[in-house]
Amino acid sequence: MAKNDPYAALRIKEFNIFLLVRFALVFGWSMQFVVIEWQVYSLTKDPLSLGIIGLCEFLPAFLLAPFAGHIVDKKEKRNLFTLCIALFSLISFGLFWLTSDQIEATWETNAILYGIYALVFFGGVLRAFFGPTIFSLIALLVPKKIYPNAATWSSSTWKGANVFGALVGGFLIAWIGVHYTLGIIFLLVMLALLLVFKITKKPVLNKGTNESVKESLRAGLRFVFNDKVILGALTLDMIAVLFGGAVAIFAVFAKDILDAGPKGFGLLNAALSSGSIITMLATTYIPITKNTGKKLLFSVFGFGACMIVFGASKLLWLSILALFFSGVFDGISMVVRQTILQLKTPDAMRGRVGAVNSMFVGSSNELGALESGIAARIFGAPLAVVLGGTVTLIVVGVIGLKNKPLRELDLQKDIDAHEDED
């Protein structure tokens, strides 16, 4: 296997299957997010309702994440992944049913709305387990020396699915409506469920079988908070998503500010992710492991600056361009963060560290949706996004000055050390 082989991870059959499963799931989940946001805003005309969706998913994902990490470290990963997908299929079918003509004709609007919120809450429970399970499973599919390559392809697949899921979701709403779009999502989840059985069961690497739940959770949190590089990287991404992101209120921009309709809504969602996927695919050929810390800080700063431009824009083409370049910067930070976590996390703690990552980053998407909804209602959507981007720039400056280990991080040294071990 060549040292700089950009396809190293793709030469492993089970990793390819994993990528197919992940693409189908994220494609479906991304479409589902777009459809739910559009449907709820259509029912309520209130940006705060979009924030409530974020809160419903954030609370269980955040509160259960440490416990989920403990469970993931103790359990066989393939079967746990399969169970998560099966339960996700129930959510997809439930949303499909709630948007049927029969339900809309016989149920009150509030009843449908509360039903959607309940299913989103259940999805938050699953999100607590999905993140650490996927993070742990990747490390069992590829050798350690190609973790960076595997992390890049996995992140690229995730972003690519977001690109097409958001884009297709927006167009399908216009072409076939919300109900049938959700039916397609259900079929995608069932496809993922069939494919996952082609991955064999994996060994459980956590030998601390006598640890109590409390001891296990404490060990995972202690590891993350004692490592300034990991903590700094997670904090940067969390702040960028929490304050700098505006995905949850794209429907407000598409309908009320840019007058772009559902197709424009899909384009806004896709623009952000398309920049990321292009960047991440480029990093398979042009590694970004040299001077990693400085590149991470620069990328998050660039993301915040682009979101300020998006918030101030009144033109659809400028908004799409700003989101595209924010995606470029986001792609760099995502690859760097995933590589840091994969290389610096012990095998026995991957579930718990993945859970903490979900608390910092995954859950901040939902909490960020709540923040965006509240801020949009108070300040208006454009000013809310501009203020969030400004906060991101300030935090990057503070962390860059205060966190020397992160600022001077060079991942290439760690990668070379693992190659020497092999």
UniProtKB/TrEMBL annotation:
Protein name: MFS transporter
Membrane topology summary: Multi-pass membrane protein
One Pfam family from the record: MFS_3
Entry's transmembrane regions: 15-36, 48-68, 80-99, 111-141, 161-178, 184-200, 229-253, 265-288, 300-325, 374-401
Superkingdom of source: Bacteria
Keyword hit for Ubl conjugation: no
Family annotation (CDD domains): MFS_MefA_like
Source organism of the structure: Hwangdonia seohaensis
UniProt keywords, alphabetically: Cell membrane, Membrane, Transmembrane, Transmembrane helix, Transport
Localization (cell): Cell membrane
Metal-binding listed as a keyword: no
